């Protein structure tokens, strides 16, 4: 199987095949509207505006699995993102990314790029400390650890990188531009 064998569901309940994005560079990101990382919508939208015509797609998959930071309906989430951050990239139906009800797409993404840590710096340390309180073994599994984990897919459909929410957004942009 590859990325193009999966689909996501849009807020209208329609199945969207990732085959529709074949030949594009894709960022798949689980998002939240009430998270400390929510301002990452701004650089994501800037990348989308700058590189969309060159083949960048961003798939926004809202998720409420991390401290209940996405409590709204799909419509409320969409209104928040478009009014506050002027997002134009496709937003999907709120979905789980871990556990029994996780989107199959996320099982595949995690199998291709597991968790390698939060990196260095104050945010990384804070995430490590917080997650150790929740699960002492969090580092040993590939699960999504928090909102705004980003997977980058190349034009051939290969998962080439995973960026944790603590990663520098400029690193994400460098990765994307190297693939365009």
From TrEMBL:
Q: Which family does it belong to?
A: Belongs to the glutathione peroxidase family.
Where in the sequence is the active site?
A: 35
- UniProt key word Oxidoreductase: yes
Please give the biological process terms from Gene Ontology that the record holds: cellular response to oxidative stress
Cross-referenced Pfam families, in alphabetical order? GSHPx
Q: Which InterPro entries match?
A: Glutathione_peroxidase, GPX_AS, Thioredoxin-like_sf
Q: Name one GO molecular function term.
A: peroxidase activity
Q: What is this protein called?
A: Glutathione peroxidase
Cited PANTHER family = GLUTATHIONE PEROXIDASE
Lineage top rank: taxon: Bacteria
Listed A to Z, the keywords are:
Oxidoreductase, Peroxidase
Q: Which Gene3D superfamilies match?
A: Glutaredoxin
């Amino acid at each position: 199987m590859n990325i193009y064998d999966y689909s996501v569901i849009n807020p209208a309940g329609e199945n969207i095949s990732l085959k529709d994005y074949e030949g594009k560079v894709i960022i798949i990101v689980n998002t939240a509207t009430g998270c400390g990382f929510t301002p990452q919508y701004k650089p994501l939208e800037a990348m989308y505006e700058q590189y969309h015509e060159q083949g960048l797609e961003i798939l926004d998959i809202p998720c409420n699995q991390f401290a209940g930071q996405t409590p709204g309906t799909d419509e409320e989430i969409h209104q928040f993102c478009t009014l506050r951050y002027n997002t134009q990239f496709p937003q999907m139906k709120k979905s789980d990314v871990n556990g029994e009800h996780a989107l199959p797409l996320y099982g595949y993404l995690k199998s291709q790029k597991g968790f390698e840590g939060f990196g260095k710096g104050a945010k990384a340390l804070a995430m490590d400390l917080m997650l150790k309180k929740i699960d002492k073994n969090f580092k040993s599994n590939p699960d999504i650890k928090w909102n705004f984990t980003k997977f980058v897919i190349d034009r051939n459909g290969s998962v080439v990188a995973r960026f944790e929410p603590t990663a520098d957004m400029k690193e994400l942009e460098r990765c994307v531009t190297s693939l365009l």
